[in-house]
Specification:
It is a single chain. With 192 residues, the protein is mainly β. It has one helix and 14 strands, in the order ββββββββββαββββ. Helix 1 links the parallel strand 10 and strand 11. The chain is globular, with a radius of gyration of 17 Å.
Length: 192
Amino acid sequence: HISHLEFESLSKSITSPSDPSVQSPVFQWSFKLPSLTNLSIISGSHDFSSLEAPNLEAFDLRINYEREGSKALLFDMRGLGNVSKFTLYAQVLSLNGLEGNPARKLDLRFLEGQAEDLSALKEMSELRELVLPDCTTVLPEKFRLGLQCLNHIEKLQCPNFTGSLAFLEGWNNLRVLDLRDSGDLKDLDCLA
């Protein structure tokens, strides 16, 4: 019975929807691993939609910074819906698959680029703390839409944010808002 699995993809490039010229296979995780509790992966493009690991608690996906050109990509989070602890130093295009996830904290600060689809956050009713990636630039509209009406969030970290805070409208349980190193903020009245 495997309870902890470490995996390193030797692929230097991955298939990316934002850069179709980059081509390499996606590793399809079509396994039944009922005893697996921890999964740690270094680099590569992965699809977990067929993974059956009902006891998986911790998931770690990161880039191998020692290897030049190393990439790590998830198109979505299907197959990882029961994981309660994530470490993501990777590009994640969608959080779909996390609907109903039991995690109380989701730390997205090390995501490369920004996930285009955050709609699953609305369905993560146990989620209380959210850490967003460095918001050096204004959040794209699609990203901001995924953050609307997250009334179950109590603590939000959004470093280097500039722009409108109107997406916080309806965050009725927000108690801690960390906007350290932020620039011009607009629509502060939604915090009242």
